[in-house]
Structures are given as structure tokens and as C-alpha cells.
Design brief:
The chain is of the alpha+beta class. The protein has a domain of 168 residues: OmpA-like domain (60s Ribosomal Protein L30, Chain: A, 2-Layer Sandwich). The chain contains 7 helices and 5 strands, in the order H-H-E-E-H-H-E-H-E-H-E-H. The chain has a 5-stranded mixed β-sheet with strand order 1-2-5-3-4.
Length: 332
């Protein structure tokens, strides 16, 4: 557009030279030449710019072609990727369904496990409660056991004391038996026996040594034996005395104050008690008289020998057992 304007200017100038003086024309020409040069320069620049633009257009065309090729390739890749994506999405949906089903199974399994766990927990709590009860019972039993052990130890101590007392008691009884035997040494073979049993000394005197048949009056020989026993008891104040009268089963045939064997056995015992009191300073509180009649025989009453053994008077000597009873009382 600029070149056309310049040509129009030249034509306009040429028309004007026909009626313009030569000096002005010359100036005009110079100016025109100058402008033409400038126009040529400008034209040259425009050509260069045009060439550069054409180069750039060509380059851009190539880039467009390359972009089209890339776009085609990318489109193909995109379609492939889209297909892969669709496949993956389908696989994902399928996997999601499987996972959901698996999750549902796991949820059910978890629920079952939780229920089982709760059952086990409840059972464990019950067992713990039972264990606590057992532990409490065990503690109580341990306390009772400790108490029993302490009591057992105390009883063992008392048992040792008791054994010691019993040993001393046996020694005392044995010594007493020996004293009685020595005191009545001259009466051997006259129906008198001395025996130690049950922690006591049993002095048995047959009827023939003490009484006439059916009588309760003590004969002189019997009085002598009773007097020696009384002197022995007088020296041993810690001995208690039980006098028991015994008979056979033959009914009493006498008359008067005595009615039967009960009366006879008691009367004979009291007769001996009176002799001991009269012949010594023995405290009467230490003496006990009893009648056993026919009910504690030593032998059968079918024979004369058996009846003879049964007709007897027993003097039972018992040492003081207070210490022994004290120990027994402590063990209760």
C-alpha cells in the first residue's frame, strides 16, 4: 500500500513539473529521488521482512503438520488409553464388587468373631468371678489352716506336756503300786492282789480275807490289812480312794437291814471306809464307797471258783490328775 502511494506521488510530481520552474523542479526532483531511495530501502526491508515471514509461515506450516501428526498419534494413544481406562474402570468396578462381597463376608466374619469374643469375655468374667471366689475361699482356708496349725502346735505342746505328765503319772502309780505291795507284803497268798492299770492301782481283797459269808463285819486279819492301807494313804495325801463292794449272783438269804446283794456290797464298802477313817487321819473327802453287787464279775458264776473270785472288795487308788485335766482342758 505504501509503494502505491509513493508512485502516485511521483506521477503527481511529474505533472507538476510541466508548469514549475527548473530550480523548483530540481529541488523537487532531489526530494523525489531521495524519497525513492528511502522507498527502495523500505521496500528492501519489507522484502526481507516478507521473506522472514514466509520462512516463519513455512516453519509454522511444518510445525502445524507435525502437530497434526502428533495430534493424530496422541489421538490414537488417547483412544488406546481411553480403551485401557475403560477396561481398568470395568476391572475396578468388578474388583469393587468383589471387594464389597469380600468386605461383606469379612463384616459377617468380624461380627461372628466379635460375638464369639463377647461370649469368651463373658465366660472369662465368670471364670474370674469364680477364681475370685476360689481365692477368697483359699484365703479363708489358708487362714483356717494357719489357725489349725497354730492350734495343732499348741496341742502338740500340750500333748508333750500331757505325755510328760502321763509319764510322771505312770511313775507315780508304779511307785504307789510298789508301796502298796511292800505295805501288804505279809498278806500274799491270802486272797490279796495288787494291779496297775489305766493309771490307777487296783487292790483286790477276796471275801475270805475280810468277811464271813453274808457278813459286812471286817475280820481281824482284814482289819490289819486295811489299817496298813490307811497308814499308807495318810502319808500320800494326793491319792483319792474308791472302795467298791462286789458279790456273786447267789441271792442274799439273810435278814434284818440287808435286803439283797446291792445292800451287802454297799455295806461292806462303807465298813472298810469307817476302818480307814478310824485308823488314820485320812480326809474323808478323799474316800468314796460304792456297791456294784453282782454286775461287774471277774469270772463266770457257774463254778464255785468263779463265784469266789467275784466275791471281793476292790480299793482303787487314783493319784491327783488335776494337772492332767488342766492340760486336757487347755486342748479344747
Amino acid at each position: 500500500m505504501t509503494i502505491i502511494k509513493n508512485i502516485l506521488w511521483i506521477l503527481l510530481i511529474s505533472l507538476m513539473t510541466a508548469c514549475v520552474p527548473s530550480s523548483k523542479f530540481q529541488n523537487l526532483k532531489e526530494n523525489t529521488d531521495k524519497q525513492i531511495k528511502e522507498l527502495k530501502k523500505e521496500n528492501h526491508k519489507l522484502k526481507v521482512a516478507n521473506n522472514e515471514l514466509e520462512y516463519k509461515v513455512e516453519k509454522l506450516n511444518k510445525e502445524v503438520i507435525a502437530l497434526k501428526d502428533d495430534t493424530t498419534t496422541l489421538g490414537r494413544k488417547f483412544r488406546n488409553l481411553q480403551e485401557d481406562y475403560d477396561k481398568l474402570e470395568r476391572l475396578y468396578d468388578l474388583q469393587k464388587q468383589k471387594d464389597a462381597s469380600k468386605q461383606d463376608r469379612k463384616s459377617k466374619e468380624m461380627k461372628n468373631l466379635l460375638e464369639e469374643l463377647q461370649v469368651l469375655k463373658d465366660d472369662l468374667l465368670k471364670r474370674e468371678d469364680s477364681l475370685n471366689v476360689l481365692q477368697d475361699n483359699l484365703r479363708e482356708k489358708e487362714e483356717r489352716l494357719n489357725d489349725l496349725q497354730n492350734r495343732l502346735e499348741n496341742k502338740e505342746d500340750r500333748l508333750l506336756q500331757l505325755e510328760s505328765v502321763l509319764q510322771r503319772q505312770d511313775s507315780i502309780v508304779a511307785a504307789l503300786r510298789d508301796k502298796v505291795s511292800d505295805a501288804l507284803l505279809g498278806f500274799e497268798g491270802e486272797g490279796l492282789t495288787v494291779e496297775q492299770k489305766d493309771g490307777k492301782v487296783y487292790l483286790s481283797l477276796e471275801e475270805k480275807l475280810l468277811f464271813e459269808s453274808g457278813s459286812w463285819q471286817v475280820e481281824s486279819r482284814g482289819r490289819e490289812a486295811i489299817s496298813k492301807i490307811a497308814r499308807l494313804l495318810e502319808k500320800n495325801t494326793d491319792i483319792r480312794v474308791m472302795i467298791e463292794g462286789h458279790t456273786d449272783d447267789v441271792p442274799y438269804r439273810g435278814s434284818g437291814k440287808i435286803k439283797d446283794n446291792w445292800d451287802l456290797s454297799v455295806k461292806r464298802a462303807t465298813s472298810i471306809v469307817r476302818i480307814i477313817i478310824d485308823k488314820s487321819n485320812v480326809d474323808p473327802a478323799r474316800l468314796t464307797a460304792a456297791g456294784r453287787s453282782k454286775y461287774v464279775p471277774l469270772a463266770g458264776n457257774e463254778t464255785a471258783e468263779g463265784r469266789r473270785k467275784n466275791r471281793r472288795t476292790e480299793i482303787i487308788l487314783t493319784p491327783d490328775l488335776s494337772k492332767l485335766f488342766d492340760i486336757i482342758g487347755q486342748s479344747k
